[in-house]
Amino acid sequence: MKNFIYIFFLYFICIPLFGQEKINIDLIVDDDRGSDDFVKRLKKETRDLLENSYTIDFRIKRSENSIQKATELIKQSYQDNSDIVVSIGFLSSSALATQMGNNYPKPSIAGITLQYAENESSGIHNYTYVESPFSVEEDIKTFKKIVDFKRLGIFVDAITESAIKNYLNQFKTDFEIEFIPLTHNVDQDLQNIPTDIDAVYLLPYNYSTPEAEEKLIHKLNDLKIPTFALIGRNDVEKGALAGLASSDYIPTYTRRIALNIMKIAEGKDPKDFPVHITGVENDFVINMETAKKIGVYPNFEVLSEATLLNIGTSQQGRKLSLEGAVLEALENNLDLKISQADINVQEAVVRSAKSNLYPQLSVNTSATLIDNTSANLQLGTVRDELSWIGNAQLSQVVYSEPTYANIAIQKLLQNVREASFETSKLDIFLNVSTAYLRYLQAKANLEIQKENVDVTKRNLDLSKTKEKIGHASAADVYRFETSLAQNNMTLNDAITNVEQAKFSLNQLLNRPKNEDFVTEDVTLSSNLLFIADPQINEHINNQFEVNKFSDFLIDYAFEHIPSIEQVNLNIQAQERSLKSNRRSLYLPQANVQGNVNQTFGRFLDHVPTEQLKAQGYDPYKATWNVVGTISLPIFQGWARKAAIQQDEATIDQLYLTKSNTEQAFETNIRTTIENVGNSYGDVLLSQKAADASKKYLQITQDLYREGATNITTLLDAQNSSLTANLNAINARYQLVLDALTAERYTGLVYMLASDEEKEEFIQLFNEYLLEK
After folding, report:
1. Is 24 helix (H, G, I), strand (E, B) or coil?
2. Pure H helices in 223-333
3. Could you give phi then psi for residue 518, rounded to 5 degrees?
4. CA distance 656 to 653
5. Using CA atoms, how far apart are residues 622 and 599, in angstroms rounded to an integer?
6. Which residue blocks in 333-400 are alpha helix, DSSP H?
7. How far, in Å, CA of 619 to CA of 617, rounded?
8. Distance between CA atoms of 171 and 576, rounded to whole angstroms?
9. Which among 597, 624, 601, 598 is positioned nearest to 368, based on CA atoms?
10. Radius of gyration of the chain measured on its C-alpha atoms
11. Tens digits of per-residue pLDDT, 265-290?
């Protein structure tokens, strides 16, 4: 009995297998590349529809990019046991559409074509096609909006030249088309470009490798030649200036071809199959990096219609990391150079103060001419009408409390300048880090706004499709058009924010303001932050641990922060001034000075030199004197007492300043560490919200597509997703900024610290924990 049931079961499950009719489908494709994904999807779609009723045998025949060979393969398929012929690719479909003379012995479907639907169906027995996803005419009209070219170049090879020329001749243009010989050798192809070509329209050229096609595009960019790609986004992402064709047409087209195959299997004539395609909208894209490189700038109206690639995210320019930016700023920042100049100035002031302790030597010479009468009136002296004399003076401070005090004070002020320089370095570190993170944040915001515009465009396309089939009203279309315009405005603001962030960062780095650079992202896993150290990270995951870590950082900061050191040095300088003013009440100043006088010549003398020498006086003999001075001011109108009182008041003020500074740093450190702990939670929660809102948006879009929800709910879901994504990005970069701010107030820049300094910091922290 069991054997009977088993045999009965096998009989019934095998009946469909033995009874299924076999369908042989010949796929005529252009080449190995580019068509694989299309073929895989087509096979799956067809088998999903027919495998329960038919056995499907796909036979792939490759035309190797030759219309002649494609024609031969099609005729061969008509002669052998094929049931359906499907062409995939421009050349194979062109052969199927134009080389058969409207004579199709077997059902035939032209897949990827450039053929436009003038009627609802082909009207030709055994032949149908799928309306082209590409519109050369629309492409060229759009290209003209970007570049007002007079001569448009198109590469053609010997195989495709005739077909492409015949196809393009049907269009009326106000410009010339230059067909450029295509050899499939990039360097040779570039040499074939005439010098008067204004722009190039890119067709699928079937180079031996994708890299060769990309090389051609980049070389055209180097020549400043604008390019527009027939196949749209794929080539634009490789570097072409612009494209219009949708990049997601494949699922729609494979589904249509599979449905046509099913209808043929049901015995229907393809001549009546609809050829129009709905649900595939143009995807106008512009590569802004290419536009900048070749010097072509679309106007704002064009930009508002397009999806902008590589806007504000140039991949050209020097590589820049957060650590590199900080190091570069410490080397080149103008504010820091000004602070360094203050140190240099103060060094000169110290040298000037010290110079008062060294001997002061001066020499002078003079010639004196007096009238004869005055010379005769000099009773008791020898006076000539014309004489030339010289003088030298040497002075030395023996003891001067103000001089010693000034030297000590200026040295302390030199240390103040150096501490101020270290403070400036910490400020530059935080300012550059903030500018760098703001740039990353602006870039991330730009990407989110671009995605939001893309989502709005997809929703708009969806509403248009629903309106065409009567499942939605024009109100939905207008509402999404309004939303698209508003979102484009927000996108423009995001673009501006990226540029402004770039200007700010370049200014801090003392670089040309409009210079492009490629940045590295910053995350906690990059080990640039002390909170990323596992030995520290575990101490900021709850409030108790956060408080202990804050207490340690406060103690560490008071020992290492240069701002507090500045106040201490100013106090020391003021105390030295006070000591000097008190000493001035009882300590004198002592100086010694010597003079030497020498007569070099006597002219128009009334008493000859020989006569003077005979009298025991030699006018040419040098004379000298030495004078020692000790001075002690007795009364200066209470000026010294007032100076003492001023110093005492200033010292009291500085101690208050120190207390205020310490309190401010304590508050800042506790606040930033609290922010770090809070930001950790924000990052996790905001990312969870972003993931959930993304799923909710996808579900809502599907519900709207099926008519199960309205436009208001869809817009709410989109706005919720936008807000959640922005919150996630902002939370992530805010966490990093909070951590860097804590480092600035602590005085330890972890990313620039040596391994020894990091180990010392961790050791001090561990010792602090043991003490507590």
Report:
1. strand
2. 233-238, 250-265, 288-294, 300-305, 322-332
3. -110, 120
4. 5
5. 7
6. 334-355, 372-376
7. 6
8. 93
9. 601
10. 45
11. 888 998 889 887 766 677 888 998 89
Give residue-wise pLDDT tens across range 56-90: 888 888 887 777 888 888 888 888 888 899 988 87
Structure tokens at 215: 């090389």
Under 8 Å between Cβ of 106 and 126: yes
Tokens standing for residue 321: 């990391």
Say if residues 259 and 49 touch (Cβ distance below 8 Å): yes
Question: CA dist 237 to 241, 286, 290, 307, 319, Å?
Answer: 9, 9, 10, 12, 21
Domains of the chain as residue ranges with CATH = 18-133+252-272 (3.40.50.2300), 136-245+280-309 (3.40.50.2300), 525-563+650-771 (no CATH)
- Which residue type occupies 675? N
Q: What is the DSSP code string of 45-87?
A: HHHHHHTTTEEEEEEEEE-TT-HHHHHHHHHHHHHTT-SEEEE
> 251 near 41, Cβ under 8 Å?
yes
Element (H, E) at 592: strand 589-603
pLDDT exceeds cutoff 90 at 253: no
Contacts 24+ apart (CB under 8 A), 13-21: 16/52, 20/53, 20/54, 20/55, 21/53, 21/54, 21/55
Q: What CA–CA distance (Å, rounded) separates 372 from 280?
A: 117
Strand runs labelled E in 381-426: 386-399
